[in-house]
Design a protein that fits this description.
By secondary structure, the chain is α/β, with parallel strands linked by helices. It has helices at 40-47, 71-77, 94-100, 113-118, 121-124, 135-147, 165-182, 193-199, 222-230, and strands spanning 2-11, 14-24, 29-33, 52-53, 58-61, 64-65, 79-82, 153-157, 185-189, 202-207, 210-216.
C-alpha cells in the first residue's frame, strides 16, 4: 500500500529523519513506536506532505510516486490523516466537522453508515459544538472525519493521547473494525505498547529517525520490545 524509501525530512535546515525505509502492507495495521522526539510524528507529516523532504525521498502509494504532490492531492488519492491533538474545529458542530471531511472530494457524497456503527455517540451529538465534547469523543469525531473520504490508508498519530482508559478500549475496537470491515490499511503512531500489541499486525520501533526493529506483533516478545524502546 505504501513504501517509503530513503526519506530525509527537515524542519528548516535541521534533518530529523535520515534515510528512512518502511513498508506498509496492504490491508494490515502497522504501528510505529518509540520514545518522544525520535521522529514518529515527523514521519507521518512527511507522508502527508506537511514537512519538507529531500529530492532523494520516494513515497510510493499504490505503486504511484507521491513525494512531489501537494497534501490535498495525497488526500484525494486515498490517504486519510488524523493528526496528534485531533485538530477538530472547536466552534463548529459535530455534523459540520464530519461534513468537512467531504471537501477534498468536492464536498459531494454521503457519510457512510458504518461510521455511525463505529461511533454511535456522534449522531446523538450532531448539533453539539466540537469543543464541548470530551477528549475521547473528539478523537472519535476526528477519525470519523477522515473516514468520510473513503481512504485506502488511514494514518493515526497517537489516537489514545489524553483519553480515559475505557475510551482507549473503544478506540482500539474501532481501529480493528475499520480494518476488518472495510479492509482499510492503517498506520498507527502510538506510545502505549499494550495498545500496539493488541491492535496491530506489525510493530516498528523508531530511534533517531530510523527503524531499528520490525516484526509481526504475534511473534514479538513484549518484554524484549519494551527493552528496545527504553534503551
Amino acid at each position: 500500500m505504501l513504501t517509503i524509501k530513503s526519506m530525509d525530512s527537515y524542519y528548516g535546515e535541521s534533518r530529523v529523519i535520515e534515510g528512512l525505509n518502511l513498508d506498509i502492507p496492504d490491508g494490515k495495521i502497522v504501528s510505529l513506536i518509540g520514545r518522544n522526539g525520535v521522529g514518529k510524528s515527523t514521519t507521518l507529516k512527511s507522508i502527508m506532505g506537511l514537512v519538507k523532504t529531500s529530492p532523494t525521498t520516494s513515497l510510493l502509494f499504490n505503486g504511484k510516486e507521491i513525494s512531489k504532490l501537494p497534501s490535498y492531492e495525497r488526500v484525494r488519492m486515498g490517504i486519510g490523516y488524523v493528526p496528534q491533538g485531533r485538530d477538530i474545529f472547536q466552534q463548529m458542530t459535530v455534523q459540520e466537522n464530519w461534513e468537512l471531511g467531504l471537501q477534498p472530494l468536492g464536498g459531494k457524497g454521503n457519510i457512510p453508515d458504518y461510521i455511525f456503527d463505529l461511533f454511535p455517540i456522534l449522531p446523538k451529538f450532531a448539533k453539539r459544538r466540537g469543543g464541548d465534547l470530551s477528549g475521547g469523543q473528539q478523537q472519535q469525531l476526528a477519525i470519523a472525519r477522515a473516514l468520510v473520504q473513503n481512504p485506502k490508508i488511514l494514518i493515526l498519530d497517537e489516537p489514545t493521547e489524553g483519553i480515559q482508559p475505557s475510551i482507549i478500549q473503544d478506540i482500539g475496537r474501532a481501529i480493528r473494525k475499520i480494518n476488518e470491515w472495510k479492509g482499510i490499511t492503517i498506520l498507527l503512531v502510538e506510545q502505549y505498547l499494550d495498545f500496539v500489541m493488541e491492535n496491530s499486525h506489525y510493530v516498528n520501533i523508531m530511534e533517531k529517525g530510523n527503524i531499528i526493529f520490525h516484526d509481526q506483533t504475534s511473534l514479538c516478545n513484549k518484554a524484549e520490545v519494551q527493552k528496545l524502546m527504553t534503551n
